[in-house]
Amino acid sequence: MKYIFYNKFLIESEVPMSDLPQLNGPRVEPEGGKPDKLVILCHGYGSNGDDLITLVPHLKRVLPDAVYVSPNAPEICYGAPNGYQWFALTNLSQEERLVGTLKAAPTLHHFIDQELERYGLEEKDLVLIGFSQGTMMCLHVGLRRPSDIGGIVGFSGAMTLPENWQSDITSKPPVVLIHGEMDNVVPVELMHQAFIALQEIDVDVDNHVSPGVMHSIGPDGLHKALEFLAKL
Fold first, then answer.
1. Across the 232 residues of the chain, what is the mean pLDDT of every consecutive 10-residue run?
2. How many structural domains comprise the chain?
3. Is 36 labeled as catalytic in the residue annotation?
4. 132 flagged as catalytic
5. Catalytic choice (132, 156, 171, 210)
6. Is the N or C terminus of the chain more exposed, i.e. has fewer CB atoms within 10 Å?
7. Annotated catalytic residue within 58, 110, 192, 215
8. Domain annotation covers residue 19
9. Whose CA is closest to 175, among 194, 193, 147, 160?
10. In a domain, 134, yes or no
C-alpha cells in the first residue's frame, strides 16, 4: 500500500481493489452501437446520481454517442435524505478538502478503470463533469490519470492543492470552470484560485462566471459547458 503524509494526517492513497467501495448509479447508453465517449458525472455533497443525470438530454446535443454514468458517491450523507458524499465536509478549509479528496480518490479511479474497460474505451475518451464536491473530485482525479483524458467540466467547485501538487500531475486535459457569481456555498474565489493553478501547469483552461447565480448551474453556464464539450 502507498501512503501520503499531510501534516499530522496519514492518508491511505492505494488500497486493495477488493476493499474499495463499489459505485453505482443511473446511466444512459447510446441507442445502438458502441459509445465513443465515457462521460462520468460526479454530484455534489448530499446529492445523488439522479441529480446530474438530468443534464444528459442537454449533453446529448453535443455528445450524442457517449455513454453517461452518474454514480452515487461512496458514503451516505446523514441528514440529507437519499444523499451521498464523496467525503465528510463540515467546512471548506484546505485541510479538510485535501484529506477528504485523497481518501475518496482511489474509489473514483477504480470506478473509471472499470467503466473504461466495460466499454472498451481509452483515457482520451473519458470526460469528467462535476458539481461542487464532485468538481473537487474530478479535478483531483482527472489530473492524475495515467495519460491525458478527454476533458473536465467543473461546476461550482474548487481544487485541492497538496504541497508540491504539481509533481503529481500526469494528465493535462482541457478544462472549463463554471461558477455562479453569488455562490454562497463555494465562493467564486475558489474557482479563480483553481483557474490560476491550472494555468501555472499549462493546462488549456477556460472559465465562466454566471452573473447573479448562486450555488447552481445557470442557463449561461450550461451553454458554456456545451460549447466546450462540442470542441471535444
1. 35 59 95 93 97 97 97 93 91 83 95 97 98 97 97 96 87 98 96 97 97 97 98 90
2. 1
3. no
4. yes
5. 132
6. N
7. 215
8. no
9. 194
10. yes
